Amino acid sequence: MNKNKYILSFLVGILLLGTVACKKELNVGNPNLPTVSGNINTESGLISLAIGAVYVNGFKNGDDWLGDSYFSLPYGYSELLGDVVGAQASNQLISTISIPNYYILDNSSKVSSSISNIAQIRANNTRAQTGAGYNPVYYQWLNMYALNSACNTVLSLVDNITFSGDATTRANTVKAWCYWWKGYAYASIGSMYYSGLIVNDAGGSSNKYLVKDSIIAESNKYFNMTASLLGSGITSATDYTTVLGELIPAYCQVGNGGILTTDMWIRNVNTMLARNILVNKLAPFVNGNPDATITTSSTTAMTTADWTSVLTLVTNGIKKGDYVFTGRSAGANDFMSASGGTVAAMTTGVNTSSTFRISERFMQNFKSGDKRIKNNFDTATKYLDDISFGTRYSMIDGGNDSSGVYMYGSTTAAVYELFIAGSYEENALMLAEANIRLGNTDAGLAYIDAVRTYLGAGVATVTGTGLTKAAALTELVKERRVALAFRGLSFYDSRRWGWTYDISNGGGSYGNTFLTSAGVVNTNVTINYNFLDYWDVPADESELNPPASGSAAILNPNF
What we know:
Blueprint: H1 3-16, H2 23-26, H3 36-39, H4 43-58, H5 74-81, E1 85-87, E2 102-104, E3 110-112, H6 117-124, H7 127-132, H8 138-158, H9 167-192, E4 195-196, E5 210-211, H10 212-232, H11 237-247, H12 262-278, H13 304-315, E6 326-327, H14 343-347, E7 356-358, H15 360-363, H16 371-376, E8 377-378, E9 394-395, E10 418-419, H17 424-437, H18 441-454, H19 469-483, H20 490-496, E11 509-515, E12 521-528, H21 539-542
Antiparallel strand pairs: 1-7, 2-3, 2-12, 4-5, 6-10, 8-9, 11-12
């Protein structure tokens, strides 16, 4: 890894949030020979460092990309590849990376795009293209390893700090914070890249590339370390609450964001552990077939044991009313802006001028009469395109103020709530999917109804209607698509359901709505995306840090 770049970002980062204490509080060492260990030697200084490790190293725009946070471009790729949004701008290949190989219209005409997602990714995965701003695989890797590296530094310092109050509780709260975000970082790497690196020492490095399964195992290890510490290492609720309240910016302690109790945080861990299983296995549901198979992929199919593990975890996962990790813009000294910090913000507005454009394939998942449509979307303008991202829909800034109905996007500071990790909705929909897959269809449908009620959809319930397994999974897919949009999960879902794989490989997406460049609405379109399922290691890493003997492949060998 390029450690100098990460450390520079880290040291600058703690100043940007406006949370660093004064010089006296930090007990700054020799200003002519600055080091982290020499200058961070008080509790307040360490907490400031831990804040910057996450919200700046992890979440600020790390290298001049589209938007201004981790949740604009890396999350944007997930929403693009999951066909929740499309784009016309050329920045970082956003206009072409999500274009399918071909589609078949209602009249049976086959239209080829002459674009290959796989070829594009590989042609642009060079250091030169990174410098030019056109290497998509670079950005998520950059920020997540910066996050991991910064947390390593905080952990290396914590045992040498004199804490006030219940010192053990305060130190363990900081450790749990770092363990959680290291788990998050490794989950992000292992869920997106074919292989990655494990680096757990401050200033450390590694050139032993490990296959993604090992990276997910490391994520699970740190999530479990978080839960263990919260379960046995916190003896003063007051000191725990004080420290966590300092680590989470005040402007993120609003709505679903807040100071999690230890029990809430453990439930958040369980949701993320379940996610790590779910999004990294196949559960094909192609053309309405629950028993579809993908013949070649970079992972394996969910087993009954996997579904049982997911069900056990999410049964003890995030509950309605639990605080979770969220983000908001603040207008100043924040980690994302109101207009450019999220995919939602960049999708908000008239479709002829917004950066991202809401997809027809996204909108087709709402049921007739769903109040979320009227509250969030209009059809005043059409955006016509000759490939795949034409749309009749625009997303209304701030919604139409329908009481109790979910609002999808706003460009006003502090209004839009970003979900950084798990949520009640995600946990409930994992409960739904696991139950349906295990044969408990009505139990699963009840969770889908609960999410729709929670988000103010106002549609008829599906529990007790005698739906088949295939029909129940259709309801599940529709609700996951609309309830979890803009949360960085859309590509993972499309991948595990088999839609992103080549039709000749058992994949593809069927029964789609499609607006042609002539303005004709098709409603039964077959789409062959044929996307790379797990990304290659960025050339910026592999060329500067060549693989050691025995490393896993740095290029996905299945494509």
